[in-house]
Amino acid sequence: MVCIPFRRDDYKHIENVFGYRVQHTLTMGPTKGGIRYHEDVSLGEVSALAMWMTWKCALMQLPFGGAKGGVRIDPTDLSRSELQRLTRRYTMEIINVIGPDRDIPAPDMGTNEQTMAWIMDTYSQQVGRTVREVVTGKPVVLGGSLGRSEATGRGLVFLACKAAEYLNMKMSDCSAVVQGFGNVGSNAAKCLAENGAKIVGISDVSCGLHNPDGLNVAALLKHVAEHRVLKGFPGATEVTNRELLELDCDILAPCALQNQITEENASRLKCRILAEGANGPTTLEADRILQDKGVFVLPDIHGNAGGVTVSYFEWVQDTQNLSWTLEEINDRLHKIMTEAFQRTLTRAQRDGLDMRTAALIEGISRVAEAKLLRGLFP
Ligand code: NAD
Fold it and tell me: Residue 2's pLDDT is what?
């Protein structure tokens, strides 16, 4: 836990905020996980997210343990220069625990490529040479990987296609609702539409939009580029984020916050496939209700693992001075995501488990095996 003092733009006012970096498992290699800027960030939340990263990396068979970071602040309340000062000071506070062979941060909610560029620059200034591989999710010109920014949404849609195939559904006949229109949500919506699905609902923090005839994702992106939020988009009925989740659809993709699908609303969901892009969007109680309803769940530790997978590709390219094409990246991502889907499905069918439990067992048992093989020191 660190305290981060930084100057506001008036240069008189100094603000103090809390920051965290949690490393959950050191057994598998360096640790890896995003950094979140949000006003509700707490040590408990960051710890839970770090643990999920461990199971996620193990499920995808990546050579990392889990970590997560966070700063308890609303980033939309800060200017660009305030954000830069905050990020650089946070980096200095955690500089002894991060590093390319130790712990490699990446973007999460409220952070982006620019944040990673500032972290990389601050770290490099301190060690006296450019260390591109200390973070992933950087701008491509600084050693970022092609395909990283859209990887989480794209990976989720690779899985949604596999699930649809398994359930004998045709993507071109499917309707989809996506909650969240940030990095994960907007790319998931784009890829779903590219695969033929009709986007009938979308939302962000400002509102939800519904159009049973379909929403044009390019037009939504243009609107957000001009107005920052979805509110005011013409040609759709405005709904609340609560109502959005209960819309008629084949695929529901929560890609914003945790605890969105709860005991209270789970029974009213109408989707056939729940594709979890966000971390922890479904509570334990809701999960049981969804199972009873026969909803096919693509659980978060698998659903959003496309991000860390392409982050791994970025780290590999940076450490070896390689540069893979977008086609290579997407092919490798597809292979890793779908192989994990097959392993999880096979375990679920063999042991009579739901997909979430099967995915967790896949991840946890790999870490357990590694721990046993490493043995006890001394
Ligand atoms: P982001 O900040 O880019 O976007 C978040 C979106 O959620 C925005 O559209 C925002 O308006 C919306 N939102 C915020 N508060 C909301 C509310 N109360 N109701 C409805 N919508 C709200 O964040 P992101 O990177 O897209 O991350 C979204 C989720 O995906 C998080 O749970 C994150 O942990 C997870 N995730 C992200 C990545 C990644 O590569 N970015 C990887 C794995 C998991």
Answer: 98
For 312, other C-beta atoms within 10 Å of its C-beta total 22
% of the chain beyond a pLDDT of 90: 99
User: Is the pLDDT confidence value at 51 over 90?
Assistant: yes
Query: Is ligand 1 within 6 A of the CB of residue 257?
Result: yes
C-beta neighbour count of 76 within 10 angstroms = 12
Three-class DSSP category at 297? strand
Task: Report yes or no: 245 and 252 within 8 Å, Cβ to Cβ.
Answer: yes
Q: Are 53 and 308 in contact (CB under 8 A)?
A: yes
Cα 110 to middle of ligand 1, angstroms:
8
> What's the pTM value of the predicted model, to 2 decimals?
0.96
Q: Has residue 11 got a pLDDT over 90? A: no
In 3D space, the residue among 118, 94, 91, 103 whose CA is nearest the CA of residue 23 turns out to be 103
- Distinct helix (H) and strand (E) counts, the chain: 12, 12
Distance (angstroms) between ligand 1 centre and the Cα of 126 equals 31
pLDDT tens, residue by residue, 110-165: 999 999 999 999 999 999 999 999 999 999 999 999 999 999 999 999 999 999 99
Residue with tokens 């920052």: 228
DSSP state of 264: T
Residue with CA nearest ligand 1 atom 41: 108
Q: Is the CB of 109 under 6 A from ligand 1?
A: yes
Peptide bond connecting 75 to the previous residue in cis, omega within 30 degrees of 0: no
| C-beta of residue 70 within 8 angstroms of C-beta of residue 37 | yes
- The residues annotated with a catalytic role in the active site are 68
Q: Which residue has the tokens 């990396």?
A: 57
What is residue 266's DSSP assignment?
G
Here the tokens at position 212 are 């049973």
**Tokens at 376, concatenated:** 């006890």
207-240 per-position pLDDT tens digit: 999 999 999 999 999 999 999 999 999 989 999 9
**281 and 301 Cβ atoms separated by less than 8 Å:** no
